[in-house]
Amino acid sequence: MNICSFGRGFPDRTISYIDLESNQSLLDFDIAIFDLVMLAGSQGKHNHLGRRRAEVIDFLRLGRTVIAFIGHFQLELLFPIKGVATVESVGSRMDFRGPEQLKEFWSAIRGTVSYQAYLDGVCGKPFVFVAETDRAVAAWVQFERGNLILLPSLPPKFDFHSSGYQSACAGFLDNLRKLDQRLRPKKPKFELPSWSTHYTWPREADLRSSLVSLQEQAEKLLTAIASASSDLQKEEKLKLLLATKGDDLVDIVMDSLRELDLKVVKGEPGRDDLIIEFDGKHAVSEVKGKKGSAAEADAAQLEKWVAGFKEERGIDAKGILLVNAFCETALAQRKEPAFPHQMLKYSTQREHCLLTTTQLLGLLLAARSQPEKRIDLVNGLFTTVGVYPEFSDCNTFLSAPIQAEG
Known about the structure:
Elements: E1 3-6, E2 15-17, E3 31-35, H1 46-61, E4 65-69, E5 85-91, E6 94-96, H2 100-109, E7 115-120, E8 125-130, E9 136-143, E10 146-151, H3 163-183, H4 202-236, H5 240-243, H6 246-259, E11 263-266, E12 274-278, E13 281-289, H7 296-313, E14 318-324, H8 341-349, E15 353-356, H9 357-369, H10 374-383, E16 386-387
Parallel strand pairs: 1-2, 1-3, 3-4, 4-10, 13-14, 14-15, 15-16
Antiparallel strand pairs: 5-7, 6-8, 8-9, 9-10, 11-12, 12-13
Helix pairs in contact: 2-3, 6-9, 9-10
């Protein structure tokens, strides 16, 4: 991106300084900077100004960017602007009230510029004003395809070699380049006429056929990905048997038992958690997620549901206590028994089946891998008295080593 400057020198050697009276054409560049504060003394050179004004108009028509630091200067001598005067006034307190396209640019340069004059008259889209007034000190003029941006000035008095001035100029130029890229008109994309689709040749036809085939494959692949993702989410949900409590635990226990082909319904609110039926046999289940182990109180609650079922329906039901013990503790750290010794006598006398939801996961996975054993595995829930003996070691059905948990 080639940048030239009139009236102000920049420490950046890639910026070409051009004398107003020289023969160097403006049209060799992409961005032109005019410092009207420094050029104020050149307003009597009408011949040179007229030539430069014609170049500026062609420059803007080509879709390029002109920056002008506002000074006490007759704008129409250089730019396609009429009826707007500049009034000398110096200050640094300014308010931005302009379009979003210029907001980032202004935020980046505001600390390095100050106004030396304000605009008297309507000029394009004013976007910076003397603080708390309507006196514009910056404006965006869109002329045909190009952009003319009038700005407050970089320091009018400066030490060319000072680090402060060099930093101010470098920051200004960097942000100007970014702004030019945002404002520069995009080249229109040529659209082929509709009749052109009637003509082709072997390579184009092969490429088009290949593209159609790839698109069909992509569509099938996306469908397969969506299906696999859904299946994975459903499968991961089984991990709730290891980690959760409350209604979430009751729901995943229900889903697991139904996959084992048991009929399962929720009990009435405040009553048994689940009512189960399998091959003419009935059971009621209390489902608990607990920070610690199960307790005799849990078994007593289960026995209450068993007695209520008998009283209401006149048939016996097996009591199954399903507990996710130590549910907030990682599996590898669950060292204590889920069903402590002191509750076993009570549950055994009442022929309860006691198992953890982790064991239920093991039972489900075993039934999947050996479908012929499913009925025997499920019947074990109805015949077991006391602690369910199978799948007590989760390492036998979970493939990831338990020792890897953090």
